Amino acid sequence: MKKWREGWVVALLVLAVATTCGGSVLVPTTNLTIVQNSEPFRELGNASNWVDTDKSHGGTGGWGANYYDDLNVNGGHDPGEPFAEDPQAGWSNTLGTDNSCWLASACNMLEQIGVVASASTVYDDYALNGVPDGSGGTLTWDDGGLQEYAILHWQNQNPGSGLSMNIHWGMDYVFSNGVFAWEDYDPRPGVDNYLNTDWEVGIGMWPLYTDGENFWHDFGHALTIQEILTPSGFDCTDSDRDGDFSGPGDLNTYDDATIGPILSGGHNYYGWYNDFYDGNILVYPVGDVGYVCAVIPEPATIVMFGLGGLALLRKRKR
Q1: Cα separation, 49 vs 309, whole angstroms
Q2: Listed range (19-28, 59-68, 73-82) with the worst mean pLDDT
Q3: Rounded distance, CA 300 to CA 288, Å?
């Protein structure tokens, strides 16, 4: 499982150091330039009809960890190996990190569009037995992935289901402050439009770090977007939290901010990030949105938008 920690040198703007978070700086939103990204990446919504599939979190492992019986003795969870949130008699009780946010989000979307009766039932099946990654591998709960893998797997298991899925990537360029630059596509109103027209939407985002000179993205996370708020923020369901910075409950509300449009080289560039990681939209690390997966139950051909290769969403470090 790769950790995306590719650093690149960019032109620094004047940034104010935040003393409460070591190495964090204020996110500038003006006078930005576009630079090539060196990372190897491949309703108004109705928030009343939401589904929240969570990772196991009630046991001794807490949020983001499971015990499993390592039958193959290879130090990783393999398809079919039983797992639980507490140690079990007779198991090896190997402790593993739960990276299944992408799977939980995909299952939320499948139930919300009405093609499965229980997101949690599908999640439990796929987390145990795995989902093809499109490259000959199989992903379970301890692997990173993308929502599209689970949705495609479900569709292949249910031929004739008539799902349409759109994928958008914003990772080919970055702004000079490191934030992903979406070329000629504004992701925030794009997601809002999807929700307004009965699509369900999941996003992938990566925290953006800086040492004051270089910027890099590290472990990512997936969310299921339920509603874009005005003038800022969004409601979502989050497999890593029952509550959020705004208050208790399974429906989470995060603050967000945008960049653009900024015209460069004949293209308009946009950015979208949120405060999932630290509860403060003004400081790094930000939840920098770089991937959008939208699905709707109607016959259509799966359309892929944007360029890029494989990227794995992985649970943030705790």
Answers
A1: 33
A2: 19-28
A3: 30
CB 226 within 8 A of CB 250: no
Spatial CA neighbour of 161 closest among 194, 113, 205, 206:
113
Range 304-316 burial, b when 16+ CB lie within 10 A, else e:
eebebeebbbbbb
Torsion of CA 179, 253, 97, 131, to 10 degrees: -80
- Can you give the residue ranges of every domain in the chain? 8-52+161-304
Instruction: Read off the amino acid at residue 182.
Output: W
Count of helices and strands (H, E) across the chain:
4, 19
Give 35-61 pLDDT, tens digit per residue. 544 433 323 334 557 899 988 777 787
Whether the Cβ atoms of residue 101 and residue 239 lie closer than 8 Å to each other: yes
Rounded CA-CA distance 201/184 in Å is: 20
CB of 314 within 8 A of CB of 218?
no
Q: How far is the C-alpha of 136 from the C-alpha of 134, rounded, in Å?
A: 6
**What's the predicted TM-score (pTM) here?**
0.82
Of residues 102, 44, 105, the one with CA closest to residue 234: 44
Do 240 and 64 form a contact (C-beta atoms < 8 A)? yes
Angle at which helices 119-129 and 147-157 cross, to 10°: 100
The answer to whether residue 183 scores a pLDDT higher than 90 is yes
Three-state secondary-structure class, residue 222: strand
- Write the Ramachandran bin of 154: left for phi over 0, alpha for psi from -120 to 50, otherwise beta: alpha
Q: Residue 197: how many CB atoms within 10 A of its CB?
A: 10
Here the tokens at position 83 are: 């797992």
The span from the CA of 169 to the CA of 188, in Å, is 13
- What are the tens digits of pLDDT across the range 144-164? 999 999 999 999 999 888 899
Indicate the residue type of 158.
Answer: N
Structure token pair of residue 76 = 């990783």
